[in-house]
Amino acid sequence: MTGTGLLAFGEALAVFSTQSGKLRHATSVDVGIAGSEAMVAIGVARLGVPAAWAGRLGADEPGALVLARLREESVDTSAVRTDRQAPTGLMIKDFRNVDVTRSAFYRNGSAGTRLSPEDIPEDHIRAAGVLHLSGLTPGLSDSAAKAVFGAAEFARAEGVPVSIDIDYTHALWYPEDAADILYDLVSLCDIVFVGEDAARLLGLDGTPQELAEGIAALGPEQVIIERGPRGAIAELHGSRYAVPSFPVRSIDTEGADDAFVAGYLAEFLAGASPDRRLRTAAACRAFALTVPGETTGLPDREELKLLNRPR
Asked: The Carbohydrate kinase PfkB domain covers which part of the protein (predicted)?
């Protein structure tokens, strides 16, 4: 890692998915990995920026799969902890059609839920250009929430920018449990990615621009409201920006938001302008939509040139 690189801290899972139909009818499955923070690390690495992922995995084959796939993508895993008392979390995914994809998560008692402040990779944070977190990991357990807050607080004390993708899901925790924790976490961050619904979970209301301004008032200098096919609205360093989406045929939305985040952070770490950050983010999202799978569609620099102008 160097001072220009990304450190993503949180959860990673092994994934077993079908290309079509229910798992019960499948004769074979695709094997991969998932986890918001890990996907962002892979996306950043594919764009030629140093990236690392830190978290806790089981001492099992799914954990070995996660490590192997990350290392194949040139993601630094030297700060990963191995938990010999708990398994690696699993995700089972049915791909029914373009509009219907169903995912089931097996996390109870997993290594990821046992993430704790002891796992905070202080040396890696100190050397990073950005610490990236997600709003999913604090919902895994009390100890995971403490680990995320501890990492954010340590990064701030060291002068390292903190990024978070709120990415709230009902599958992990109730809105009333999540709201206060995520609100406090946002106040520790410099860069915030959030959808409109998750922004309202923080007690805000109004237009996307008003939501961005409301979150910026909590402290972050860079706030990006992700609007899916409608593009994104951003409040960056006190200025307003908007970026449309690219015209592509959507095949699988899984991982598209992580791709957006990866594109933005890669350009931020490369010192690009706000306009360039947002355009690359939108392009990365478009690529992720065009093929099934969490990581398959994440582009490299050459592929970014293939897209038409955003609409």
From this structure: 8-300
